[in-house]
Amino acid sequence: MDELASWYNVDVVYLDNQIKSEKFEAMLSRNSSLKDIINVLESTGKIKFKFKERPFM
To answer: Which Gene3D superfamilies match (predicted)?
Structure first.
C-alpha cells in the first residue's frame, strides 16, 4: 500500500491495523488508474476503500 500511495500521491489510513500485515500481489501497469487498482484490491474481499478529499492550503 505504501508503494501505491507513493505512485498516486495519496495518504492511506488504516482503520484496522491488522490489514497492514496483509500482502497483496498483482500484475498491474503503473499507467492503470487508481480506481482500477482499487477495484482489483477490493475484489479480494479482504480490503475496502473510502476516499476523502484533502484540504487545500
So the answer is: 3.55.50.30
C-alpha–C-alpha distance, residues 51 and 8, integer Å:
13
Residue 57 clears pLDDT 70, i.e. is over it: no
Q: Report how far residue 50's alpha carbon sits from residue 43's, in angstroms, rounded to the nearest whole number.
A: 15
| DSSP-derived secondary structure for 26-46 | ----TTS-HHHHHHHHHTTSS
Here the cell at position 8 is 498516486
pLDDT beyond 90 at 43: yes
Residue 11 grid cell: 495518504
Say which residue, 55 or 26, is predicted with more confidence: 26
